[in-house]
Amino acid sequence: MRIGILGAGGMADALGTHWARAGHEVMVSGRDPGRSAARAARMTAAAGAEVRAGSFAEAGGFGEVVVVAVREAGLLGTLQAAGAVLRGKALVDVTNANPQEFDVTRSLARLIGDVTGGHVVKAFNLCHVDVWRMTPPVFDGRPLAVPLCGDDPDALAAVRTLVADLGCTPVDGGGLGRAVLLEATAAFMIGLWFGGADAQAVLPPLDSSGAHQPA
Ligand SMILES: NC(=O)c1ccc[n+]([C@@H]2O[C@H](COP(=O)([O-])OP(=O)(O)OC[C@H]3O[C@@H](n4cnc5c(N)ncnc54)[C@H](OP(=O)(O)O)[C@@H]3O)[C@@H](O)[C@H]2O)c1
Question: Could you read off the pLDDT of 122-131 as tens digits, one per residue?
């Protein structure tokens, strides 16, 4: 699949390198052509497969799937720079708001959909970039599960493939209206992690979750 990435930072690097290695065609993009080209060259060397660099509009036009991987501060400007090429495309939203300024009434995934007219799938926002660099992310013998929130069946199918290409397991998280819950979860968990708490320890295993028990 052709994957355009809006962004040439850590998340673009971690995810895009895996996908290039898995045989996808990848183009990264940023504000500074020299920085994007340097990133693409490092990814090419790491993946053993060519990664291209371009402008936001070029990466948006290149991708059958377009990954939105920029800081919130640059989000609107980036989407505007990519322009109309994003309309109707599968868009993977990995963004998070600054946890200190998180506003539950303002979903970045919803904003991306409204601004672009693309088919947004929220994914990959719950784990630190170093987790996405792992080959593969497996903890206690279990592959990392990646929840996806989106409405469009074709976009969801494409993102499930991209999750599997990382060695992870896709999990149905419901429609795009629930993406704000993934955003809130990230804000909450990041607060715990940075406070030194083991966020994984706050949830019981499935057997003790209360699900699947007779009423
Ligand atoms: N890092 C993580 O652990 C992690 C984990 C999950 C989700 N996320 C989310 O993923 C997104 C990308 O994170 P990242 O770690 O890849 O960030 P990063 O390394 O700082 O890269 C940010 C990218 O955003 C671009 N950008 C465009 N306009 C910008 C502006 N006004 N200010 C800052 N950057 C701007 C940068 O362009 P240039 O190349 O021109 O600088 C760069 O390509 C963010 O929304 C973040 O919250 C991050």
Answer: 999 999 999 9
